[in-house]
């Protein structure tokens, strides 16, 4: 792939442009917001100058509702040999593409399963897609050369391709992405008018649960409007579970011991099913989930302390599988939890104590 055009220089479009540029592809940038395109160019994502001829691939990085029209316009212009979009919903754009009479032989839908709470070119990173799944949803007549161009794009961006039907993709992302976004926002909304002394008690649990609630509402309205029915179906199921949990909690306040037991059993059932569902989420490199153990280390809030801690683990020959940081309220310190394989705990603990670290 020698040349490409990225239409839409938000987070995803600019990140793809940065990745391609790093690997030697000449990338031309377009955006209805010319300032956004110029910002992306200033970051090294490509050039705002138009291509001199037909490029190898056009990447359409616009909201789902605009994909069909942008594709139609680009194909009329003869912009590229092959076309793909990176919208997070596929069935709606697919229908628009068909209704607008686009050339579907040179088009393939796609969706990189990556993102961030922030949007726009300034949030972009060349490594955003490294190791992430990138879904491809070919049309029935998508030609082999177009599929190969999309596969090359995925490879150049460091992602892992997965081919899916468009409708199956939308059902899947409704479950693992779109519904969690709304639920995170619903939980975070409880904090809007909460007393300050309550919010000060917030710890890593509420931070983890509400992290994606910091996302751009305008962007998510565009996404959800393109997959609204499927998300609503899942939320109805959640609402039924929520109603059962509420009834169970009310029963746990009853004077009657039998009712309290029934209520506790209903709440326990929700928690148990949550355990089962959580355990199904793939672990490292897509492998079955692995149980790790935490080594908790008290760390000062000074430059270089976290790097020094990681270096100590490396010298001990211990691989850190995950890390979480709990910040202490009102203190210049925090608690770092290093998730490691169970067999590595004694080795890491001994090494850190020997080097003077305070373990908890």
From TrEMBL:
Q: Give every Prephenate/arogenate dehydrogenase domain span.
A: 1-283
Q: Which one Pfam family would you cite for this protein?
A: PDH_C
Write down the PROSITE patterns for this protein, in alphabetical order. ACT, PDH_ADH
MF GO annotations: NAD+ binding; prephenate dehydrogenase (NAD+) activity; prephenate dehydrogenase (NADP+) activity
Q: Tell me the superkingdom of the source.
A: Bacteria
The protein's annotated catalytic reaction(s) are: prephenate + NAD(+) = 3-(4-hydroxyphenyl)pyruvate + CO2 + NADH
Q: Name one GO biological process term.
A: tyrosine biosynthetic process
Enzyme class name: oxidoreductase
Keywords noted in UniProt: Amino-acid biosynthesis, Aromatic amino acid biosynthesis, NAD, Oxidoreductase, Tyrosine biosynthesis
Instruction: Give the metabolic or biological pathway.
Output: Amino-acid biosynthesis; L-tyrosine biosynthesis; (4-hydroxyphenyl)pyruvate from prephenate (NAD(+) route): step 1/1
> Where do the ACT domain residues begin and end?
294-360
InterPro entries named among the record's database cross-references:
6-PGluconate_DH-like_C_sf (IPR008927), ACT_dom (IPR002912), NAD(P)-bd_dom_sf (IPR036291), PDH_C (IPR046825), PDH_N (IPR046826), Preph/Arog_dehydrog (IPR050812), Prephen_DH (IPR003099)
Query: What Enzyme Commission number(s) does the record list for this chain?
Result: 1.3.1.12
Q: Which PANTHER family match?
A: PREPHENATE DEHYDROGENASE, PREPHENATE DEHYDROGENASE [NADP(+)]
Family per record: Belongs to the prephenate/arogenate dehydrogenase family.
How is this protein named in the record?
Answer: Prephenate dehydrogenase
Species annotation: Streptacidiphilus fuscans
């Amino acid at each position: 792939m020698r040349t490409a055009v990225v239409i839409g220089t938000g987070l995803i479009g600019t990140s793809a442009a940065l990745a391609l540029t790093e690997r030697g592809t000449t990338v031309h940038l377009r955006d209805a917001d010319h300032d956004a395109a110029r910002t992306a160019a200033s970051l090294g994502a490509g050039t705002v100058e138009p291509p001199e001829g037909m490029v190898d691939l056009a990447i359409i990085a616009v909201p789902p509702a605009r994909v069909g029209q942008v594709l139609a316009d680009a194909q009329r212009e003869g912009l590229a040999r092959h076309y793909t979009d990176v919208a997070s919903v596929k069935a709606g754009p697919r229908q628009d593409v068909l209704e607008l009479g686009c050339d579907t032989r040179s088009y393939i839908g796609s969706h990189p399963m990556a993102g961030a709470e922030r949007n726009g070119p300034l949030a972009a990173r060349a490594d955003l897609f490294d190791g992430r799944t990138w879904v491809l949803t070919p049309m029935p007549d998508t030609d082999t050369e177009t599929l190969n161009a999309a596969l090359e794009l995925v490879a150049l961006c460091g992602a892992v391709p997965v081919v899916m039907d468009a409708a199956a993709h939308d059902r899947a992302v409704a479950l693992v992405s779109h519904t969690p976004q709304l639920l995170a926002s619903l939980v975070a909304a409880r904090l809007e008018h909460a007393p300050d002394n309550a919010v000060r008690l917030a710890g890593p649990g509420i931070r983890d649960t509400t992290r994606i609630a910091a996302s751009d509402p305008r962007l998510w309205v565009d996404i959800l409007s393109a997959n609204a029915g499927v998300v609503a179906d899942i939320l109805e199921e959640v609402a039924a579970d929520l109603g059962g949990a509420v009834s169970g909690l009310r029963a746990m306040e009853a004077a009657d011991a039998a009712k309290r037991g029934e209520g506790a059993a209903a709440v326990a059932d929700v928690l148990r099913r949550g355990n089962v569902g959580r355990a199904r989420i793939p672990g490292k490199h897509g492998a079955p989930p692995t149980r790790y153990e935490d080594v908790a280390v008290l760390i000062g809030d000074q430059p270089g302390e976290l790097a020094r801690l990681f270096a100590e683990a490396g010298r001990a020959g211990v691989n850190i599988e995950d890390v979480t940081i709990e910040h202490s309220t009102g203190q210049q310190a925090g608690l770092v939890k290093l998730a490691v394989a169970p067999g590595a705990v004694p080795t890491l603990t001994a090494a850190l104590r020997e080097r003077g670290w305070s373990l908890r």
